[in-house]
Write a structure and sequence with these properties.
The chain has 253 residues and is of the alpha+beta class. It is 26% helix and 33% strand. The strands form two sheets. Strands 3, 4, 5, 6, 7, 8, 9, 10, 11 and 12 form a ten-stranded mixed sheet that branches. A two-stranded antiparallel sheet has the order 1-2. Helix 3 runs antiparallel to helix 4. The radius of gyration is 28 Å and the shape is elongated. The chain starts with 8 loop residues before the first strand and ends with a helix. The chain binds zinc ion (ZN).
């Protein structure tokens, strides 16, 4: 019987050598024989790599609380209520390029996402393992890639040296602070926290400075109308506190 439609292409699994068929244009395939995940990109056949979680959920929450207690954070943020903590293996492309004679590693998300930080992940090469059937993802969701490697390749600097797909361990932590919900992404191999938005530090110091300036200036002006010499000194003092305080706060926050 003549098979109609797409001509199937036969290849061999790079891990166990078992033959497998795939449709042209298909990018992701699991070897039926050994369970290894394979990425097919034009003439290239690649492995998937995976980086194991090095932070447990509990450690991730502790890391989050340390981050939330940082000097730029709103008071009390470290005591936010954790709504959910979701472990995920997020797919990224790791491109190794030669740019002006130097090796450069570029990470790009392999999945469209609104989650912050996923272009800033650092992939430690020593921690990469081949993603095969022996790999146990536990309760972490394996996020499917939907972006092609080719799309990035054309725009990357330098010369192609090596590329692979790496499943990166992340936690998405959703938390509630003063009745509003926020999220962060945590690199579950390094503990680095990424966020696009978090509760801003309150504007109380600005208001305090503005208020102090106003009051001192008013007092100065009031005294100035009664006793001339001390009056303008107080006014000047008010202005110095206002300008100096404003500058100090602007630099600090
Ligand atoms: Zn195989």
């Amino acid at each position: 019987m003549v098979k109609l439609g797409f001509a199937m292409v036969t290849m061999n699994c790079p891990k166990c050598g078992a033959p497998f068929e795939y449709e042209p244009g298909m990018r992701f395939k699991k070897c039926d024989y050994c369970g290894t995940m394979i990425y097919i990109d034009k003439s290239r056949v690649m492995f998937y790599y995976v980086i194991p979680f090095s932070l447990s959920k509990q450690q991730a929450i502790q890391t989050f609380r340390r981050w939330a207690a940082g000097p730029k954070m709103e008071k009390g943020l470290e005591n936010s209520k954790i709504k959910s903590i979701k472990p995920m293996f997020f797919p990224v492309y790791r491109f190794v390029r030669t740019v002006n004679g130097k090796e450069q590693v570029i990470i790009k998300p392999a999945k469209t996402t609104l989650l912050p930080g996923l272009t800033k992940l650092k992939v430690p090469p020593g921690d990469m393992k081949i993603f095969d059937a022996s790999f146990n993802p536990g309760d972490a969701e394996i996020v499917k890639a939907d972006l092609s490697m080719d799309t990035y390749m054309q725009a990357l600097p330098g010369k192609e040296k090596e590329q692979e797909i790496v499943f990166f361990p992340i936690y998405e932590i959703r938390y509630e602070f003063q009745g509003k919900e926020y999220n962060v992404v945590m690199d579950a191999s390094s503990g680095e926290v990424f966020t696009s938005y978090y509760p801003p530090r309150s504007s109380v110091p600005y208001l305090a400075i503005a208020g102090t300036t106003f009051i001192l200036t008013a007092i100065g002006a009031a005294i100035g109308t009664m006793v001339h010499p001390t009056g303008w000194l107080v006014t000047l003092f008010g202005l110095i506190v206002g300008i100096g305080g404003g500058y100090y706060i602007a630099k600090k926050y």
